[in-house]
Structures are given as structure tokens and as C-alpha cells.
Amino acid sequence: MPQDVQRPKIDYVIFDMDGLLIDSERVYGDVTNELLAPYGKEMTWDIKAGLMGKPEREAAAHLLSFFPDLPPHFTIDYYLEARRPLQDQRWPSVPPLPGAIKLVRHLHAHGVPIALATGSQRRNFELKSSHLGELFDCFEGRVVCADDGLLAPGRGKPHPDIFLVAAERFLKLDVGQGEVQEGHVSEKQREVRAKGLVFEDGVPGMQAGKRAGMSVVWVPDANLLSLGGEATSVDEQADLTLKSLEEFVPEEWGLPPYDS
């Protein structure tokens, strides 16, 4: 870490899941292109960049907006239903991403409060995580999914709600509601938020973490970074950008260092 960079001391950590801890974004891409191929269509990375981190139906609507000449039956509902069995076949074998198991197990072993905040539906989370107990058992049930009924409609990422729910409900922290700059968030709540660290791979998730008033480590897919421009140009900026979770140095954030 450069000598002039002073990281805040972190008390708790919240993780995204898809594309950060597990290689599930590849499944989404493969299945979508399998469904589009008969019509001569393809979801390229410049399209996919706009879907990542969005709620399911919003992401589907964004995708289909690029293909207005698809047959009339290829609606949002058709797409979501058609992809489900194809994804379900793949979720039980989706692999963890480099550094994920090491980091999560390390934080858990050292008693650092951790939670998971994912835009996945609960059923999909169960399918994606059931074979990776060494990773997901560390969260001890502290998991917020998009359809748990804990988020108001339309309040997915980049709204900060899912991270605030995870902090308040599962880590028992008084973080309040709404974006950090809003007047009803007290100074004490801002201080509690500032002690949180969010790990994300998507742009909306990175924005959500910053709008929550937490520090954010962003681990984007290399394909996303290569696009640049509108794909990654937003007002919010991550505190640290890594190529992989393997590059994360816990002690830079006041967290216990890895055992040598």
C-alpha cells in the first residue's frame, strides 16, 4: 500500500456473492447466449455490464431492450422461465473464485463479523452455495437475498438498502436507513457505517456500498474493466480496486493478517 494512503480501521465486512465469491456470472452469460443463439443474437460484455447487480426483472428488461426484433413470445417472463432449468443444472457445480474461501474463512476464524448481501433469489442462493459449505457455512446464516422481503420494491443496488439491512439485522448495528448523505442519518450512524467494508464486483454494488457510507473493495471482471467508458464511469469510486480477492491485504484495514 502506498505510504500516503490511510485506510480506515474496519470492524465488520459485507460480501456480495455472484462474480465475487463464486464464478456464477459465467453461468448467467452461457445460459443467456444459449437461449439467444437460435435467433442469431448474443449478449456481449458491453451489454452484460449493464445487467450486473441489477434486480432480476430489471436486468432482463435491460437485456431484451438490445434485441427488439426477437419473436413476440420472447418476453421477460419467457426468458426468466426458460433460463431457470438451464441455470439450475449448473449451480450445484459453480466453483469459488480465487481467494474467496481463504479470505472468508480467515475473517470467520478471527471473529470478524461478516455477512452476505446478494441480489440472488433465496432458492438460487441455496443451489449455488449448498456444495460450498467450507465457504458459506462461515456466514452462519447471516445472508440477505433479494426476495427475502427485507427490501422495499425497487430498492435493489445501487440503493444501499441491502448492505444496511445486513448490518442492522444480522450484525446488530445501528446504521439507520437511506444514503449516508441524507439528513436523517445521525452522526453516530455515519460513524458505524464508516467502520464497514463491502466487497463487490459489479458497478451498482460498488455504488451501493459507497452510498451506504462504507468503504468498498471492488473486484471487477477484467472484461468489465476493458470496456471502460460508460460501463465503469459513475460518480462513486471504490476505495480500492483489485484484480482478485487474492490480492487483498487484511492488515491494511486493521484486520488480522493472514497466518504466514
From TrEMBL:
Q: InterPro entries under this entry? A: HAD-like_sf, HAD_sf, PGP-like_dom2
Give me the segments passing through the membrane: none
Organism expressing this protein natively: Polyporus arcularius HHB13444
Q: Which GO terms describe its molecular function?
A: phosphatase activity
Q: What is this protein called?
A: HAD-like protein
Matching entries from Pfam families are given as: Hydrolase
